[in-house]
Amino acid sequence: MTPGLVRVALRRTLRDVKYVEAVRPRRARGLVRDVYRQVERDFGMLAPPIALHSPAPDVLAAAWLMLRESLVARGSASRAEKEVVAAAVSAANSCPYCVEVHGMALGSLGEPSAAAAIEAGAVVPDADTRALAAWASGEGDLPADAPAAEFTAVAVAFHYLNRVVSVFLGPSPLPDAVPQPARAKAKAILGFLLKPGLAPAPGEALGLLPPTAADGPGWAAPGSTLADAFARAGAAVEAAGERSVPSRVRDLVRREVKAWDGKPPGLSRAWAEPVLAELPAGERAAGRLALLTAKAAYQIGSADVAAVRPQWTDDRALVELVSWAARTAAVAAGDRLAHRPRREDSPRRRGR
Predict the structure, then answer these.
(1) In this predicted structure, what is the pLDDT of residue 347?
(2) Residue 13 per-residue DSSP state
(3) How far apart are CA 300 and CA 169, in angstroms?
(4) Dihedral of CA 173/176/178/180: which sign?
(5) Cβ atoms within 10 Å, residue 34
(6) Tag placement on the chain: N or C end, fewer CB within 10 Å?
(7) In a 10 Å sphere around its CB, with 0-12 CB exposed, 13-18 middle and 19+ buried, how is residue 174 labelled?
(8) 3-class DSSP state of 64
(9) CB 45 within 8 A of CB 8
């Protein structure tokens, strides 16, 4: 399987997006077209986790803004370190699609053993990488000299993307049509395609969304590109939530996320029903989808989406509901990471 065929196959995976119809590249216009062009230019391919947002153009731009300015754009941290954070967060959130993609990217950057260990839930061999992955998973402290804002930005972006991907995509970036004997070779080629070249300059995606008077996240330096990017993205997603998520549902999800320690609730969904009982009957389906997206997106099935369709009939509203809930949980996850104490005697620091 040639790289060209893999690129074509990845574009065709837009047809495998569940529940909504992603805009095809040839039909993209306006903001959707502008985002698609940047994604293919800077990320190397039209990534389905971004393209699935296309029924809601402002939310599409917000998702790309978070991903580009955290993972893709040039910064103090290396791309390999950022991919460690992306893969570790994805593993903690039980998002096999994102673990596979960012494990392949990490392997292409010369860290195949770290990628394999994160995917398998095993011990990462290198001490520095192990400490970074543990922090990203919520199980350790960030080394004192690490670029905390950059790593936290990546973590927040993937806490967001993992949840959206768990709703709208399957467990693998490769289409089901790729036969089993060819999947290993296809993954190798995809890993090669995911290997980044020269990192683009930060800030070039900011113009996709208007400036906002809202403050950036507390973990980002005021006035920095990361603060501006996440503020603009946040304003767009909050506006989407106001359009498509009932206010009582928003209040419930915010309250539940604020009281949550971030640990997955497990396979049972019994925890959700007593909470949802306080909503009016007509809002419980939307409340269930939003609450599950925030706290256990891996538990969502087709019946949960079908239940909201009588009232949330258009694709834009469905994307906006899921996006709002995913971002609400991601913001809380970032706050927990940003306030974690940092060891002065970290392996990274001792090695200097």
Answers:
(1) 41
(2) G
(3) 11
(4) positive
(5) 18
(6) C
(7) buried
(8) helix
(9) no
Nearest to 58 by CA among 241, 242, 240, 321: 240
H-assigned helices in the chain: 3-12, 30-42, 48-51, 57-67, 79-92, 96-108, 112-120, 127-136, 148-168, 180-194, 225-244, 247-259, 272-276, 284-296, 302-308, 315-338, 347-350
Give the side-chain half-sphere CA count within 13 A for 134.
Answer: 19
The pTM score is 0.91
In the structure encoding, which two tokens stand for residue 86, read together? 């992306």
CB-count exposure of residue 116 (10 Å: 0-12, 13-18, 19+): middle
Phi-psi region of 290 (alpha: psi -120 to 50; beta: other; left: phi over 0): alpha
Buried b (16+ CB within 10 A) or exposed e, 216-232: bbebbeeebbbbbbbbb
The list of the chain residues with pLDDT below 50 reads 1-2, 341-352
> Residues with Cβ < 8 Å from 290, sequence gap 6 or more?
245, 249, 250, 253, 321, 322, 324, 325
Which CA distances in Å does 84 have to 90, 224, 225? 10, 23, 22
Structural domains in the chain, CATH included, are 3-202 (1.20.1290.10), 246-338 (no CATH)
- d(CA 278, CA 291) in angstroms, rounded, equals 13
Q: How many CB atoms lie within 10 A of CB 43?
A: 18
Question: Which two tokens mark 91?
Answer: 């593993």
Which residue is associated with the tokens 């909050």?
238
Structure tokens at 55: 């029924």
**What is residue 319's predicted lDDT score, i.e. its pLDDT?**
98
